[in-house]
Specification:
Length: 508
């Protein structure tokens, strides 16, 4: 009961922080930008956070983190608008929403689909926040017992999960994780003071800039691949939606309620698992609803359940993602890795000590989730028409403007043209790798987790006098190392089965 009372008391303190005018303003700016970014195709939360990261250098850590987090979960709301009204999955998690959302819009029920989406999103986000309020202190209490071998094993699991469970080939995911780890080793070694892989360039002594890497592989690379998409978007769907159109009938809410609950549970369960991402969560939720439905043939034809469940899963996952990131310092996906990097730049070390050492950031962030989600719920109704018009902005105007802000943002980090060159280099490399169907998210995961993985690995070996068995002698680290081995083995077995199936089909 004391833990419950302490969590509620801390949450009230968080609301005092989040509702301060200065912090409330930056929370509003974050969710507004996130909503806009979510609507526009090609500009994801990663690109937006990367572009605005230099702005946070001169800000206090609390409003800086509130704004970046607002961009993240705000983009989840915005992405559903284009998916439902224009069959345009601006971002991967909303590809599932298109399957039933757009048929509903063509049948004149686009307002109902949007209304259910917003209510499902708010419900799922609220459940995710509640889980974070009570689960984070318990997780931190356990994490204080972790030693260097245990921390290494937990972070190794994050890397392996992020590599093997990312989009596409697991082998390519592992390759990109290793690439990120390699980029993370560039710079001055903190133990010996030796400069590593700098090729004589003093500008690389302080590591590759996080902003340059993120903007290159997620911003410039995507722009280079999309450079030929110069047309504006058109749709035959009626765009005039009012408040009354977006109010679901009682029968619609009754039909959407249990799919919404099940989608929320799927999002919560997968939220704490590194590497799964909201896209995987939405597909699992959609598949679950279709399997248990009495009329599975309705899915893909405008089933309301096919909209409510994936959107709830996506938003629950988005909120619960912050639990391992803030409590253990282990990002669940690329966006979390970028927010983790922003905290490190601010001098805030995510991990078990953040609740006691930076209570204003931790509890203020949690309270801001509720504030931001309420703002999104209120803001989206009157601004639907504005967001739809933004979807008609031609790429020939959108991309050059975004590239200009990318260059200005990265230059303002250190006032060095070298950083702009870094963005260009990683942009070209990223575009080539994306064209070859390599996933980019593991690169950022490897870059951010690489240094702490190396530090804890070296510390563990130092304490054990070089005994590699130390990782199997501690129960916690042995458990996580075993899970890592099982993940790799499972991917190997699945790969062999796939190869044998393809060979059998070729012979047939």
């Amino acid at each position: 009961m004391s833990v419950l009372a302490e969590s509620v008391s801390s949450l009230l303190y968080g609301f005092q922080i989040a509702l301060e005018p200065h912090n409330l303003w930056w929370c509003f700016v974050g969710v507004l930008i996130g909503n806009l970014i979510g609507v526009l195709p090609g500009l994801g939360a990663l690109t937006a956070i990367s572009m605005l990261l230099p702005l946070t250098y001169t800000m206090h850590p609390v409003p800086a983190v509130l704004m970046l987090a607002g961009i993240f979960y705000g983009s989840m709301y915005g992405g559903a608008i284009g998916a439902i009204l224009l069959n345009l999955p601006s971002h991967p998690p909303h590809a599932v929403t298109c399957l039933d959302g757009f048929p509903m819009a063509r049948a004149g029920k686009g307002g109902t689909a949007l209304g259910v989406t917003m209510l499902s999103s708010f419900f799922a986000a609220s459940v995710g926040i509640t889980v974070m309020v009570f689960a984070s202190p318990l997780l931190v209490a356990v994490a204080f017992k972790f030693g260097p071998p245990d921390l290494f094993a937990v972070m190794l699991l994050g890397l392996v999960a992020g590599a093997t469970m990312s989009r596409g080939s697991p082998l390519k995911g592992v390759a990109m994780t290793l690439f990120g780890l390699l980029v993370g080793t560039v710079g001055t070694d903190v133990n010996s003071g030796t400069m590593r892989f700098t090729f004589g360039m003093l500008e690389l002594a302080d590591r590759v800039e996080l902003v340059a890497l993120a903007l290159g592989v997620f911003g410039v690379a995507d722009f280079l691949l999309s450079v030929n998409r110069m047309h504006a978007l058109h749709s035959s769907v009626n765009m005039k939606l009012g408040l009354r159109d977006m109010m679901p009938a009682a029968a619609d809410m009754k039909r959407a309620f249990w799919p919404m609950v099940r989608g929320t549970l799927v999002g919560v369960v997968f939220g704490a698992m590194p590497g799964t991402g909201p896209t995987v969560t939405t597909f699992i939720s959609y598949a679950l609803e279709r399997r248990i439905s009495r009329n599975p043939e309705r899915f893909g034809q405008g089933a309301l359940e096919g909209v409510a469940a994936p959107e709830a899963a996506s938003h629950a996952k988005t909120q619960v993602d912050f639990i391992p990131t803030m409590s253990l310092g282990i990002p669940g996906d690329a966006v979390m890795a970028l927010i983790l990097g922003a905290l490190l730049i601010q001098g805030v070390q995510p991990g078990p000590g953040i609740i006691t050492q930076h209570a204003d950031i931790f509890w203020g962030l949690i309270a801001s989730f509720w504030v931001g989600n309420v703002l999104l719920l209120i803001m989206n109704v009157p601004m639907i028409g504005v967001w739809v018009k933004m979807l008609r902005v031609p790429y020939r105007m959108l991309f050059p403007a975004a590239l200009f802000f990318v260059a200005v943002g990265v230059y303002s980090t250190n006032n060095q043209l070298f950083d702009v060159g870094e963005v260009l280099f990683f942009g070209v490399v990223g575009a080539v790798l994306m064209a070859l169907d390599f996933p980019m998210a593991p690169v950022l995961l490897g870059y951010v987790l690489g240094p702490p993985v190396e530090d804890n690995f070296r510390r563990a070996l130092l304490l054990s006098h070089g005994n590699m068995m130390t990782f199997l002698q501690h129960p916690i680290s042995a458990t996580f190392v075993t899970v890592c081995a099982m993940l790799l083995l499972a991917q190997l077995v699945l790969g062999l089965r796939r190869a044998l199936r393809m060979k059998g089909m070729a012979q047939a």
